[in-house]
Amino acid sequence: MTILQALILGFIQGLTEFIPVSSSGHLVLGQRIFNFKAPPIIFDILVHVATLGAIIIFFRKELISDTKDFFKAIFQGNIKKIPKICWLVIIGTIPAAAIGFLLEPFLGKIFNSTILVGFSLILTSILLFSENFLKKQTKKITSTSGIDALIIGSFQALAILPGVSRSGSTIIAGLWRKLKKEDAFKFSFYLAIPAIIGAQALEIRGLFEIRNGGFIPHFIGFITAFLTGILALKFLKKMVISKRLAYFGIYCFLIGSLAIILSL
Description:
Elements: H1 3-16, H2 23-33, H3 41-58, H4 60-76, H5 84-103, H6 107-110, H7 114-129, H8 146-158, H9 166-176, H10 181-201, H11 215-241, H12 245-263
Helix pairs in contact: 1-2, 1-3, 1-11, 2-7, 3-10, 3-11, 5-8, 5-10, 7-12, 8-9, 9-10
């Protein structure tokens, strides 16, 4: 892997992991457009760890508070004091974990299909356009039910398909369930933490694949994805609050159509 390839793919990962246009779909398209070979598994792990780090830094205050309360309740043996958002994340993670386990043998073929990416991006555009038809959201995370979490988690499972945006689908699902914009945004990325950890755990064997001389490109890809990810999170939060997700829907429709044309 060259430094330029690492820089481009790291930028794509950091930007599109959070902006609702699908990072997996753009990585597939990026490799096709720039004629890149598929990056080694370790690179994929590192850029996903970088975006995980971006989430942790962005939500550090809330995460520190919720984590302290979680372990305090565990050590005291009082599960009633576990923060509700922790229970919701556990429930919401179940669909993606189940689907990911079932589809794991087929993921290689799925991620090499440009036409699937195209149709999945168009599906993402439809989800994002649906924001225009949603009624006012009034529900806080503290009043969110387990059913809400399960439904939102099911949309995260759908995002296993390359081209379906994980952030876009879960935020929209949260808004469908009448969560306030800020709460839908927060819950979407709380759900992302175990999802990213679980997905990369399946590829942990790739940690042994770094060759001599491969450190610098991998490091550049990691830093690029991390910094770009933090900026993308700040930008997305503003777009969610100002109700402008549909703009990304236009982009997804155009890129999805292009991907279908390229696959013909």
